[in-house]
Amino acid sequence: MYKVLIIDDEEPLREAINILGDWKNLGVSEVLEATDGNVGLAMLREHKIDLALVDMKMPELNGSQLLQIAEREFPDLLLIVISGYNDFEYTRQAIRSKVVDYLLKPVNRTDLNTALRKAVDMLEAKRQKQSEFINKNITLNMSLPKLKEKMYLSIIERSFKSQSNEAFLPLIGADASGNHYTSGVLRLLNLEQVRRERFHEDRDLMHFAVTNVINENSGGHFEAFSFASPKYEREFIAIFTMKGSYEGDAAFHSMHHLKKAASTLKELFGIACAGGIGATYSDYLELARSYETAKTALDDIDLLQLKGNVVVAGNGTSALQESKDNPSLTGRMPQIRNILESGNSAHAKSILNEFTQKWQASAHFSLGDADRTLREFLILLSDIAGEMDSIPPLLRSGKDKGLSGLGISGDFISFAQFEGVLNEVLDVYTGEISRSLAGNRGGVLENIKAYIDNHYFENIKISMFTDKYFLSREYLMKLFKGKYGCGIHEYVQKVRMDKAKDLLSDPALKIQDISEMLGYKDKNYFSKAFRNYYDCSPSEFRTQSSEVEK
């Protein structure tokens, strides 16, 4: 599935593209909108966008300037240019920036979807090539014995018995003297996003790709062996073995190797990483202590200061002590429960926001703090929902657990994104509790539909309803489409077009007047919207209707 961004300062054009695009058949999962070039650039930096449609004439940061920046910062981004002017300068920049296609306003359905199909075909070709490259090496990876992974895990868990496993010691280089061993831990901060966008939700394929990168360029006097942690889904354990060297050399090479692996993962797959390296020992059984030091170092990384990939060395002490005074949500959960029972989800969010502000203002809020807070929050909300018989459906069915059962990725590479995950969790539970208390959201959806039916001529924004009913945009859109078979924007367009047919039957009304009555300030845009909807212009429809009546 692909993510598309429309960058245009004209809302009618953005709305038209939203309506005309054959998104489902093109495999587009999300269409985002930016109101100008600066907003578009910020969204490109925040989201992983596959394709952007860019208007060339915009205030402040115009299309040409945006294309030049995109060339440098987003070399894999595909672009479609839209312009109301057949201008050579725009065309020259578009050619220089290797855009997929160049569309002239007004955009019609056929040209738009032809350009979109061309872009999607290019994306599919790139994805297929990358998948083939990874699959080509799977056979080699499978030759690595699971026994080696099992041995390292038993050492880390302190259950390894040297005598009973003596025959297998050469497998991990533990039969020779003079070797040094180091453990590292690498956490994938945006695991769900990468697995979805780069590996087609294939967990095993992603694991292979990550371990293949970590293990790359090892052998001889220095070996790296890695595997997915069975306890922490986002983490990979790396074991570094250096033969016949000094402890300092082994520690340096291990740190350098893990940092390089993190950098390569970012470059190849867009994976954001945080990692920890433990101490180096000459006794392979001390890998357990090395791992614990590495995990502590990883958990201690300050989320408030996290910027880009980072790998830190553990020193055996923990900075978590510094954040022990960070306030816990646990004591406020009874109050939150009472608020949710009263249906005031906005108040519940304000309490959560109060805590996130305190954490953000603290001296240190680590990845470990974030993980513990998120786990506690999930357990506490689940308990409340269970008592109120409002467990979300997937959790109730037992098909999925934790965040995946709530439909939340759980990715966060900054404190702001962590805060967003907490709010998503609260949104899901408050939504389920609200449905349980109210029976269903049918009344809300009927109110929204009735409002559109009576105010179709106004500038209707989804935020009007999300703010009023305390629902997220995505959730509200999903509910509305599930009940009425189309999105809110599409329904507004349908009501306007149905009304347009009725008004056009009155020959006394001018098309300009009808346009204004329907909420279109521009007669030409109304005509274009009508043609796209009915495959004929308003004038042609009026003529055809008159002939039928005769």
Automatic annotation (TrEMBL):
Gene3D superfamilies per UniProt: 3.40.50.2300, Homeodomain-like
Alphabetically ordered keywords of this record: DNA-binding, Phosphoprotein, Transcription, Transcription regulation
InterPro entries found in the cross-reference section: CheY-like_superfamily (IPR011006), Homeodomain-like_sf (IPR009057), HTH_AraC (IPR018060), HTH_AraC-typ_CS (IPR018062), Sig_transdc_resp-reg_receiver (IPR001789), Tscrpt_reg_AraC-type_HTH (IPR020449)
Modification sites for 4-aspartylphosphate: D55
Pfam families: HTH_18, Response_reg
Coiled-coil boundaries: none
Domain (HTH araC/xylS-type) ranges: 446-544
Protein name in UniProt: HTH-type transcriptional activator RhaR
Gene: rhaR_15
